Amino acid sequence: MNAAGRLAVARLISLSGGSAAYIALIAAIYGATRSALWISAAIFSSVVASVAAAPFAGWIGDRFDRRRVMVAADLAAGVVSLSMAATSRHAAVLVVLLGVSSIAQAPFEPASAAAMPSLVADELVGRANALVAATSSAAYLLGPLLGGGVLALGASPATVFVVDAATFLVSAVMVAGIRHSFGRGSTEAHPGVLAGAGLIVKDSALLVPVAAGMVSLLGVGIADVASYPLSLHLGGGTGGYGAMTALLGGGGLLGAAVAGFVVQRRTATIFAGAFLAGAVGLALASSAPVVAVALAGMALAGGGRGLADVAAVTLIQRRAPDEVRSRVFAAQEGGAHVAFSVSAFSGGLLVSAGGARLAFAIAAAASLCAAAVASAARD
Fold first, then answer.
1. Same domain, 249 and 108
2. pLDDT of 113-155, one tens digit each?
3. Contact 346, 222 (CB under 8 A)
4. Domain co-membership, 225 together with 98
């Protein structure tokens, strides 16, 4: 198995475990408190921790050997998962530990994305990015099913947390076994934890994919919040909502798979087209007369999202110097978390004020604006 394949499998394993553990964590918190406010507190803890940790996570990936950074992040996250298993009956502790877990995992993703151009040949970078994105999407589909299924069979949340810890260990072993250079950043040539953000602001070739992604996420969060009310409105009920969510993720998996064949050649054009496809899908869902049409729209929106994500990573890798690449990706990730948080909050307000269809229409408009921003991207 080549380096990109090992990294993709490592992510599939650890993200599947993490997604399953998230379901278990929500179940444990709600079981202990019977309050949705505690679930909101857990999500808030994770998002705030991720945003706060992003600049330092990127700096770590540029300051130290990236292989060791990724292995250490996996092992640290595994220790936190074991701590969750030991405290699974204490909601407040779980909320805090979810934030700690987000901090522990934060260095992995920017280090991984920064290392990819060093792990594979230039002409294979786009395909490698697509492989990692596809397996990550698959993990976000399989993980919740695994977690929900195991809990339904009578296992405790603590058991799922232990399994999650084991998946982090497996991922660490697989990454440690990759015998290729991971590249090396430099905190001397580009000093400071915010060097990546500074470079993005100064370089339009980096700013365009980052900004387009943030604009798109302003709509994605709104659609996430509005999906359940829309399904109810169309008579799809809870089953329709589950199908909408699954098709959004499944579309992302398909979009990432398609990206492996097309994104290397005309990345900038595909980048803008992907957001346009997302806008069409969300608009279709907004105007859907029956739930089946909404499902088709969600699949199209997910496909555009998956394709756009791979194109954005590829564009950033081409432009960002290796010395500061981890911090660039960390800044991108931090901005994405902020945009998604804003949209998730505003989504509830929009649904309350104008209904789910209006919320989806605004989400489609955000994706269309993202396409307009992405049209300025250059290969």
1. no
2. 999 999 999 889 999 999 999 999 898 888 887 888 888 889 9
3. yes
4. no
> How many CB atoms sit inside 10 A of residue 73's CB?
27
The answer to whether residue 287 sits within a structural domain is yes
Looking at the structure, tell me whether residues 128 and 224 fall in a common domain.
no
Convert the pLDDT of each residue in 338-356 to its tens digit: 998 888 778 878 888 888 8
Q: Is residue 332 part of a domain?
A: yes
Whole-number Cα distances in Å, 206 to 81, 86, 316: 35, 43, 6
- Minimal CA–CA distance to 27: which of 151, 154, 165, 162? 151
C-alpha 229/C-alpha 76 separation (Å) is 38
Structure tokens that stand for 82 in this block = 């074991």
Query: Which runs of consecutive H residues, i.e. helices, occur in 120-156?
Result: 125-152
Q: Is residue 229, in this structure, part of any structural domain at all?
A: yes
The whole domain housing 319 covers 195-374
* Cβ-based neighbour number of residue 376 at 10 Å: 15
228 vs 320, which has greater pLDDT?
A: 320
With contact defined as beta carbons under 8 Å apart, do 78 and 169 qualify?
Answer: yes
Residues 228 and 261 in one domain: yes
User: d(Cα 27, Cα 153) in Å, to the nearest integer?
Assistant: 14
What pLDDT band is residue 1 in, cutting at 50, 70 and 90? low
Give the separation between CA 371 and CA 278, rounded to whole angstroms. Answer: 9
* 357 alpha-carbon distance from chain centroid: 25
Are 117 and 222 members of one domain?
A: no
Burial class of residue 15, CB neighbours in 10 A (0-12, 13-18, 19+): buried
Co-location of 216 and 142 in the same domain: no
If one counts the domains in the chain, the total is 2
Query: Which residues fall within 8 angstroms of residue 162, CB to CB, at 6 or more apart?
Result: 81, 82, 85
Amino acid letter for position 32: A
Judge if 28 and 156 occupy the same domain: yes
CA distance 59 to 75: 19
Question: Is the same domain home to 30 and 132?
Answer: yes
| Distance from the first to the final alpha carbon of the chain | 30
What CATH number should be reported for the domain holding residue 57? Answer: 1.20.1250.20
